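Quick one - first record:
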Amino acid sequence: MPFKFEGQNKYITDSTFSRLSLKGKRDESLIKSFISKLLMLGVDFIEMSKYTMPPALINKDIIIYKVENIEDMRGLSKENIKLVLYSYKTDFDLCNIINYIENQNFNIIIELYIDEFLRVDAILLKMKLKKLYSLRFKGMSHFDEALKGELIKVKAKGYKIDLCFNDKLDLATASALEGLDYYDFLTGAFNGGGDFTYASLEEVVLSLNVLYKVKVSLDSNILSKMSEEYTLLTGNKINSMKAISRKGYI
């Protein structure tokens, strides 16, 4: 379920599975267990791809399916996928995607850089896309007044905003908290996604609880078990200096 901040609903997306390759033999029960714990932690959506499609018993309403092209979308309606994620590449590709999706049973999240907004906005207005769910802005390393100003302009046009900060300056979690007023969705990953370094969702959840008194997590005591499962699934170990993922912190 979404959490409320200043009376507004905010949603959290975990992109762990779409960012990482699962190591070794696919363990369906382990995937289901980890996803169930993400939901217990307060995550609303799970981002997946064709390489890490979830077990059949997972509720498809919470899945955001990452696609690269129209071919990746074929058959998704039969799979009861409700949301797809497409990363903007060229105007031509985006126009083709829009034409295709209008006759499908799912909505789309378009991922782009903030400096691509005016270009994408013009295409969306011209083609009158009715199935747009939100715009996800990526590549930001920190939240500042310039980004704030750009997001205000996007919001004024009626778009739902999804932010995905990178952590190359070690500011992703802080930026996610500082920008709370300016987004509807936050995308990150457990442990920051390993080598891909995004906002660590477990850090965001605990920071919201402790610093802002916002109830996000249903059960933050599961972090140590999640750390074990994350390592088994991805082959990436949790940094020993990362106290919030170690047993006994909560």
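second record:
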Amino acid sequence: MFILTIVFLVGLIFSVQSLLLSYSYIDLSQGPQTSDSNIIMVISEAIRETIETTDFCSDAQGNLNELNTHIVTGMLSLYDIDISYSINCGRWDNPYPDPPPVEADVRIVGEATDTEAGLVFYHNITG
């Protein structure tokens, strides 16, 4: 009787494990989210954060150049990323919807895609 109980319990544990194991598989049907639009969103957020934390317009160009170097050399080698900036220090403290102080053009060339985005950024987000 003892052996029969042990065999039953082992079978029960194995059955429950098999049922629960199907819920713990990692879904690999979708690849990593490295589409052009996701990369542009990451770049846009990095530029926005850099502009908002830069106190003086005179420092913005250097900070953006460092960021550009970091992005272009640090991103996936499958992509060719080109970022160009236009900074107008006369507009540095403009609130939205006045003309933006920083305009950026981002171009990403992948294996089969070519995506461009024109972005605008404000240092003075509070108005």
